[in-house]
Structures are given as C-alpha cells and as structure tokens.
Amino acid sequence: MPEGTATSRPVWIGTSWKMNKTLAEAREWTAGVLATLAERPELMSGIQPFVIPPLTALTTVRELLGENSPVLLGAQNAHWEDAGAWTGEVSVPQAADAGAQLIEIGHSERREHFGETVETTRLKVAATLRHDLTPLLCIGEPLEVHDAGGSAGFILDQVRGAVDGLPEEQLGRILLAYEPIWAIGEQGRPATPADLADPVAALQAEFGASVRAVLYGGSVNTDNAADLLAIPGIDGLFVGRTAWELDGFRRLLEIAAA
Fold first, then answer.
1. CATH class of the 11-80+87-257 domain in this structure
2. Which position among 80, 115, 204, 209 has the lowest Cβ density within 10 Å, counted as fewest Cβ atoms?
3. Is the Cα dihedral 138, 139, 143, 144 positive or negative?
4. What is the C-alpha to C-alpha distance for residues 203 and 151, in angstroms, rounded to an integer?
5. CA–CA distance, 253 with 199 (Å, rounded to integer)
C-alpha cells in the first residue's frame, strides 16, 4: 500500500481507452486481463482494477467480464438528463443498462473541445449519483496555471464546483482523478513528485477524508508508476496509452501489488 494511503482503501489501477479499440481488440484485451487475474490472484490483493472503453465496446466488455467481476467497468461520458432530445448523447441510465458502473466526468479533452464546464460537471456528478453509479471526476490545470504556482487553487475550485451541495454520504462515493493538462497526451511532460506534492496534499486536506479515492493520471508508465504511487495522498493511477496494451496493464498491476 502506498505511503499516505488509508489502509482500508484499495490501490486503484484503471484506464480509459478514449477513441481507440475495435470490438475484436476490446475482447482480446479483456480476455487477457481476466486470464492474468485468474492465474495470478495476488494481483487482486488490495487492488481495484477498472477499465473505461468507448461506448461501442461497453456491452461487449461487460459480457466478457461477467457478473461480480473484480474489474469495474466505466463509460467515458454521460448526459445529466435521463432522457430527451439530446442527439448523439447517452444518459446515465443508458450507460448503466449497457454495463457501466463508473462514469468519467470532466476530462480536460471534454472541457476543451466539447464545452464541458464546472456547472455541467456538477450536473453529471449529481445524475451519476442519482442512479447509484460512481462518478470519476477528472480535474487538472493548464501549464500557465502550474507555472504560476496556482495548481492547488485551480483544481480545488473545479472539485468544489462539481460537488457543491452534496451530502457527506454522496461525497464518499466520488473518485477524483487529478490529471494536469500539461502532463497528459502524447506531448505531455511527465510530472515529478515535486510537481504533484502541493496539489495532491491540497486535495487530500480538503477532500481526502470525504471522497472514495484520489487518483493520478498524466504520462503514467511502467517506469514512473511506483514513484507516483509512493507520493503521499495518491490512492491509485488512471492510465492512458501504457495500459491500452495488455502487457502494460499487467505490469501496472504488478507494480501496485508490490
């Protein structure tokens, strides 16, 4: 268990595939993860794996995972309304019907390209909780905010706006994923422990005792995963490209287990 993580909390290791993988590729990855966990049950000790495929693959992955799977399944987005004239959108009940247990909310790509705001994240968090699913709230600051020393205040404001008015019980069902915008994507710069110390400490000080977990994402790979998990206050990793390959995801589970 990483230093600074409550002993009652698992270490979360998960990935969003973004707009990647065909159904055949989704089946191959999922079957490989299940075979790994069956062969090496120690990789499940104190670890909570999760996967967030594109919506096209959600039902396929759910069918492979089966009932009571150790791997939680998520959707990359969902609308805040339960139904209506929202062409191209998917509601939380529809995502749940397709097998989702988590809903990813507020990723920086959604904020930048699709107009996601603090207010829409608040609506989506509320809708996800209303239907008994787990919100995975993504937060993160741009490079200019980081360079100006404003990272902690920026991400705290994002969380405060998204959880405004929620009772303590509902806060306890939320996962926070801190993903600095300057650290994500192919051109992202991997964050150092010094970069993350103050923002993560601020998140833990205000929300650590209330939320389900605080995860980190942004240029995570098999070389830096152990160092990231050792940072006090990081309860797990939300991983991109490294985890899209079965070997990468398997190695991340091994690092977390160690």
1. alpha beta
2. 115
3. positive
4. 11
5. 25
Mean pLDDT of 172-181: 98
Count the neighbouring beta carbons within 10 Å of the beta carbon of residue 46.
14
Residue 79 is given by DSSP the state B
Please tell me the predicted confidence (pLDDT) of residue 5. Answer: 39
The Cβ of residue 116 has, within 10 Å, a number of other Cβ atoms equal to 19
CA distance 195 to 189: 11
Tokens of 28: 């191959």
CA trace torsion 226, 227, 230, 231 (10° rounding): -140
Q: Which residues are catalytic?
A: 107, 179
Q: Compute the distance between CA of residue 195 and CA of residue 193 in angstroms, rounded to an integer.
A: 5
Tokens, residue 193: 């422990």
Q: Is the pLDDT of residue 32 over 70?
A: yes
> Taking 70 as the threshold, does the pLDDT of residue 4 lie above it?
no
Q: Compute the C-alpha angle 238/239/240, nearest 5°.
A: 135
Can you say whether residue 243 is alpha, beta or left, with left for phi > 0 and alpha for psi between -120 and 50 degrees? alpha
Given phi > 0 = left and psi -120 to 50 = alpha, else beta, which region is 201?
Answer: alpha
- Which residue is listed with tokens 């075979």? 35
pTM greater than the 0.85 cutoff: yes
